[in-house]
Structure formats: C-alpha cells, structure tokens
Amino acid sequence: MFSLLRDRRILILWIGESINAFGNGLTFIALAWFLYRLYPNSPALSGTVIGAWTAAMLLGTVSLAGYTDVWDRRRILQVANGLSAIWISLIPLLHGLDLLSFPALVVIAALTGFTGSVIFPAQQASLPTFVSADRLQGIQALFNLTWTTSGLLAPISAGFLVASIGAPGVMWVNAASFVVALIAYSIVRFPTVTRAQDSGQGLAAWWARTRYGFAFVLARPPLWATLLGLASVNFAMEPYVAIFLPRIADRLMVGVELPAALSWVRADSRGALGVGLLGSVLALAELGMVIWMGRRTSRHPLNWIALGCVGPALCIVGVAYAPSLGMALVLALLMGLCFGPLNVMVGTMFARLTPEEVRGRVYSARILVGQGLRPVGVSLAAVLMGAVGLAPAVAVLGVFAALLTLVGYLRARGAGDDAQGAAAAD
C-alpha cells in the first residue's frame, strides 16, 4: 500500500487529500458544536442546517456527478475545491461581522453541499486510473487512510481548537485545506482515459446517464446490497454526529476530572473535548483496520461491508445509553474496528466491478443511494428526540439501520451472487 507513494503523482494527491480531509474533519465537528451552542434548545434548527448541506449534496450528485464521465475530472476537482474554500470561509467571515443569520447558514450549507457533491465521484473515478488492477485495493486503502487519519486527529484537535479559538476560527483552517487540495490537483497531471461517447449536455443525456448508473447497480446484488447498507448506516450516523453526540458528550463529561494542564477549558466547552475524545478513539481503531486491510486481499468483501454497517449502527445505541465515559470509549473502539474495512471494501468492489468509462455515473448512483437517507435521518432525529428523548431516539435509528442492512445482505447472499461478486472483485 505505502509503496504506491513512490509515484510522485500519488504522493502529491495523497498529501493534499490528507490535509483537506483533516480540515473537513475539523469543520464538521466545529459546525455541529457551533450549531449546538447557537440553538441549544432547538435541535430542529441545527438539523435544518445539516439537512440543507446533505440535501444540496444529493441534488448536486443527481445533476452533476454523471458528467464526471464526460467532463475533465481534474478540472472538476480544481473548481469544486476552490469554490468550497469560498463557501466555508463565509461562516467565520459573516460571524465576525455579526451578519450570520439562520437563513444565511442554510444557504451557505446548501452551497457547500452542492459544490462538494462532485468531489468524491470525480476523485473515486480517477484513482483507479493511477494503478494497475492488482493494486486497486491498495490505493483505496491508501486514500481511505487520509480520511481515517483525519478522523483520528481532527476530533481531538477540533475539541482543543474550539475550546481555544472558537468554532468559527476552526472553519478558516478548513478553507485553507481546500486551497491545499486545489494546489495538489493543479500540480498533478492525470492519466489519459477513454471518455464516454455520449457527450450530450441536454436533459435527455443527463437522464440516460443517471438511469444507466442505477440500472448497473440494480443488476448486481452485491452492489445494491452494499448501497442499502451504506444508506442505512448514514441514516443513523448523520444525526448521531451532528445532533446527538454533542449532547451525549456533555452528559458523559459531567463529573470527569480534567488534568491541571486543561484547567483553561471553559465549563461550557467540556463537551467538545468529549466529542473529540470519542471521535479519536473510533478513528484510532479504524486506522489500524485500514492499514491491515491495505496489506491483504479479501475474498468476502460483502461480509466486511455488512459488518461495517451493522456494527456501528448498534454501537451508537450503546454510546447513547453508556453510564460512563469509559464505557462509551470502549464502544467507540468497537465502532472503529467495524468501520475500518467498510470504505476500503466498498471502494474496491465498485472499482473492480465497474468499467472506467462509466464510473462517474455508477458512482453517482452510489452516492445518491448511499447518502440519500442522511437528511431523512437528521429530520427524523429532531422529531424523535422531542417525542421520546435522546437515547431512545438514537436506539430507533440505530436498530432500524442495522435491520435494513441485514435485509439487503441476506437477499444478496440468497441470490447466490456474493461468491460471484467476491470472485470478480478478487
């Protein structure tokens, strides 16, 4: 896996993405805490901002991602990262000028989500072009390592940074990280690839690309079972991180004695440290699993994917009911062990089962289905928390996500395509 970094192009992209992933990790946590402090008694408002981000991302995926088979992917990544830097910097800028209103937050979140929607499919469609077929799992693990490492460093870093310079200041860091990614994509020349012949730009061409991506996935049970699992776990994890976790961490940090070196932490920011600690433990376990997966070839990818969806969905329920910070940390560790193989195996399976010239439209379907329930989960979470309380609301979402994943997994296995998909993936 790490031998791939001998290729200067991959090394530059990997460094750029590592910095950008770290910045994104900081902002997501800082934004969740920022919204919690702005609207402590109105989770629906926090959910609306996060939901606008996710809904706009899905809209962008539907309308734009299919064109990554036709447009220049390098240029897409340059423009999207540049615009994302502008949008995210508007939050601290307007906040500093005392001009940041709730409608402005919703608009900024929507712009950020829409612009960022093409980054993942363009990147994922491009990565396989840098390596031979036998190195696909390695490059997926390598770039998944950037997200995992940011997941390790960003939560605790965000906790300290929010406690010291405030959430808006953290968002300036993310804006700078988008600029770093823009520079990386500007330096590296992408391999020449065969473009799709259907280069039409009209509505009919768009619909044909979108429909093809879904038809491709639906014809392959391992792929649609994977997307059902991803949709389910995102349905539960999005509201857990954005709405539930700050409140859970606030509860878990009550009575916890901080070291003297942290005496400067304000009482109303102790929960941010709890969020960071839980996130870092999860990411540490995930990091170890990603490195392990990068050194081997799995013959049963769908099994790992099911574990990566069901395990975290049940673990968040345990965290919500955990009687102490220590118990919550153990569950966060288990969550990370389950999450580790998930993105590696999803990326590897899709890369190996999808021809290069149609990856953009297939990855468009992957993102749309995999992320489609995120805004639904956020909206439902706010309603459930008001009706039954925090922990029961997490339980409803988590158990539902686990059951839905199992349904898709068992149907795919029952169709007899797991072995076929695994053989094709290997």
What would a concise description of this structure say?
It is found in: Cell membrane. With 426 residues, the protein is an all-alpha fold.
Notes on the structure:
- This protein has 426 residues and is an all-alpha fold.
- It has 2 domains: 1-189, Growth Hormone, Chain: A (Up-down Bundle); 200-417, Up-down Bundle (Growth Hormone, Chain: A).
- The protein has 16 helices and no strands.
- The model is unreliable at 417-426 (pLDDT under 50).
List the helices and strands and how they pair.
Blueprint: H1 8-38, H2 43-64, H3 73-96, H4 102-116, H5 119-126, H6 136-165, H7 167-187, H8 203-218, H9 221-252, H10 270-294, H11 301-321, H12 325-353, H13 359-371, H14 374-388, H15 390-414, H16 418-425
Helix pairs in contact: 1-6, 1-7, 1-9, 2-4, 2-13, 2-14, 3-4, 3-5, 3-7, 5-13, 6-7, 6-10, 6-12, 8-13, 9-10, 9-11, 9-12, 9-13, 9-14, 9-15, 10-12, 11-12, 11-15, 12-16, 14-15
Query: Could you tell me the radius of gyration in angstroms?
Result: 21 Å
CATH architecture heading of the largest domain: Up-down Bundle
What is the β-strand count?
A: 0
Q: Given the C-alpha coordinates, what overall shape results?
A: globular
Order of helices and strands: HHHHHHHHHHHHHHHH
